[in-house]
Amino acid sequence: MAFLDYNLQQILQQSKPAKYLRKSTSDREDKQMRSIEGQDKDLDEEIITKFNLKGVKTVTESQTAFKEGRPQFNALTQEIEDGNIDVVIVWHANRISRNYADGGKFVQLMSDGKLKMVVTPHGIFENTPRDKEYLMNEFTRATRDSDDKSEAVKRGNRTKLKVGYIPSGRLSEGLMHVKNDKDVMINDSDPDRFPLIQKAIKLVLDQTHTPMEALAILNNEWGYQTKKTKRTGGNPMSKSTWYKTLSDPKWHGELHRREGVFNTQFPKLLTKEEYEKIQVILGKTSTRRLNKKDWPYTGLGMVCGGCNATVIMDEKWQIICSACKTKFHKAKDRNSCPSCGIHIAEMEQPTILHYTWLMPNHRNLPEGVECHQQSLPVINFNEQLDALLSQIFIPESIKNWAIKILQRENTQEFQDRTMIKNNLQELDRDIQKQIDNLLDSLVKELIAQEEYQKKKEMLLLEQQQVRKKLGETDKRADNWLELSERTFNFACYARYWFAHGSNQEKREILSTLGTNLMIKDRKLLLYQRKPFQILNGMREKIEILLNVYEPDELIDTISQNPSAHPLIPRLLRSRDSNPNKRIQNPLSYR
Ligand SMILES: [Zn+2]
Ligand SMILES: [Zn+2]
Fold first, then answer.
1. Pairing mode, if any, of strands 17-22 and 288-290?
2. Where is the Resolvase/invertase-type recombinase catalytic domain (predicted)?
3. Which domain holds residue 15?
4. What ligand has the least distance to the C-alpha of 344?
């Protein structure tokens, strides 16, 4: 690549030059690029004035060079083709092309001898193989730059979505882009609008107002005005925006995007349960199957006692019409009362009933016999499970006492174990010594090869057994105390956490308590894990103690003091189930 010198000046002055100025309006490509005026100024100073060039044509374009088909660029190449232009002056080679087709076309014009030079402030590309290669490289790099850049933008957006924010663009009413303390743009609630929208939603949720009445109050009484932008805004909230707000799942924390579903980080207008109730009020939601995330009792392998099919969770909504008092099921395509026809969203304080069920997804039995096991209401299931947990419940004071005894026994156990371990290790060393001696004897030809082999094999076998025992001793050491402690902790706190914990915690409690879950005749059956079977019997034995300690008071202490107790869960995970008894819990147990 040549630099500007006197010889080149001669050639340039005898040529037909044009300057090509381009800056993309798409800020993604040319955000930091010099403006068209700036490019023009630079070229004037560094090339045109400096070399005293006359009659330089100007071609200006405000279009991306990502894609083929720029009108001015096409006109320029046509002029070159026609012999009216033979030198092109540009601020940088990447002004000419950021795609392979246009870049190739340009270099071809050079090969054809129609384009003598491409001049930039940094150097000149002439019709030589090496210069053309350089130029092509510049175009290729410009292409890659743009690929990289758009990839980076996409990546940036994905990262932002993953952490729970909407990357860019216009946000819904109630949200705004703000900078956080690390100078990163995030979404936050719009302090002027978010509280008002939330208050209006509350009116709908409380069923004191229909959605349209709530919107009227929002606009007329509270003077809501949409966010102002250059062209729009400053108006009351429209009906469509209001309904969009009420049915957008991002407001309870689920951002649905082309890229996937993300958990939001910006403030929520309502909870998921509230959101679902509103969908019923709007006449949208109907029965749906609840997935693992929604409910604690799916994904645990619970089966139907009649046909062994998976038990799933299901919900039903029922509405009592406010006008005619008809009770009807909210089916998928039913938005209004089946008897008087009034739309659900227009009912004044309709009664909304929500039921959840554990529903076997029945399969047919042999010879087409249907399975007649019924669904079990979740409320009922919870009672049964609570009764099971209360059977193994032990008060905190007893738990502490039991653990203390366990620890004392553990000290004894530890001493025993250490002794056993020492003995086994000594035995291991002894065998090793015998093996070594045996080899010695063989080398000194004290024994025959055959005898050596036979004896060695026996010793190796013995050694193997000793080492296996050693391993087991270690394992026993880790397990039993921890397991017992966890068992007692579980027995003590599971009931509390079952009543107050999250779905995930409930799921853990259920799977800790037992395996092979089954629903039969509307009852929960399970194989209780062995430690709890023992506790079941134990409760009667410690009944006397319970009386001494006045259990009611103890239960009270627990429920008032939940934070003092770290969460039970992940109990007994390391232990295999021991399914030798499927227990059934009498519902009447209290
Ligand atoms: Zn069934
Ligand atoms: Zn009705």
1. unpaired
2. 17-166
3. 6-161
4. 2
89 closest CA partner among 44, 128, 131: 44
Structure tokens at 584: 């059934």
Q: Which amino acid is at 28?
A: R
Same domain? 87 vs 59: yes
Structure tokens at 319: 């509405």
In the reported structure, the alpha carbon of residue 364 is separated from the centroid of ligand 1 by a whole-number distance in angstroms of: 8
pLDDT at residue 490 tops 60: yes
Q: Let me know whether 37 and 132 are in one domain.
A: yes
Span 256-302, pLDDT tens digits: 888 888 899 999 999 988 998 898 888 876 556 666 667 788 778 89
Residues near ion ligand 2 (Cβ under 5 Å): 321, 323-324, 326, 337, 339-340
Q: How far is CA 577 from CA 306, 375, 481, 530, in A?
A: 23, 27, 18, 7
Q: Kindly state the average pLDDT of the residues 422-430.
A: 90
Which-ligand-closest: CA of 324?
A: 2
Q: Does residue 101 share a domain with residue 44?
A: yes
80 and 223 share a domain?
A: no
Convert 236-273 into a string of H (helix), E (strand) and C (coil): CCCHHHHHHHHHCHHHHCEEEECCEEEECCCCCCCCHH
Residue 504 identity (one-letter amino acid): Q
Please tell me the distance between residue 328's alpha carbon and the centre of ligand 2 in angstroms: 9
**Which positions ≥6 away from 590 have C-beta within 8 Å?**
387, 390
